Amino acid sequence: MKPWLIIPLILGFAVDWMRKDLGICLATAEENGASLPVTALVDQFYKDLQNLGAGRLDTSSLIKRLI
């Protein structure tokens, strides 16, 4: 387990909630013929965190995915 997962960052907006909102955003963009490649990339980064069991952590935990 990653050491940063031991101390949960649960005070802010959870990764799970962010992925829900990004999913709505991406679905709406697709319905309207818009392309949001950076949004899709960020969504993938949050998905990676969820796969590590970090879905309930604050969205600031994304920094651990990027470094």
Q: What fraction strand?
A: under 5%
Distance between the termini: 16 Å
Number of helices: 3
Number of domains: 1
Q: How many strand units?
A: 0
Overall pLDDT confidence? 87
Gyration radius from CA atoms, angstroms: 13 Å
Globally, the shape reads elongated
Tell me the series of helices and strands, N- to C-terminal: HHH
CATH topology, by name, is N-(1-d-carboxylethyl)-l-norvaline Dehydrogenase, domain 2
CATH superfamily: N-(1-d-carboxylethyl)-l-norvaline Dehydrogenase, domain 2
CATH class: Mainly Alpha
Low-confidence stretches: none
Range of helix content: 55-70%
Largest sheet report: none
Name the CATH architecture: Orthogonal Bundle
Structural class estimated from helices and strands? mainly alpha
Description:
The structure is a single chain. This protein has 67 residues and is mainly alpha-helical. It has one domain: N-(1-d-carboxylethyl)-l-norvaline Dehydrogenase, domain 2. It is built from three helices and no strands. The radius of gyration is 13 Å and the shape is elongated. It starts with 14 loop residues before the first helix and ends with a helix.
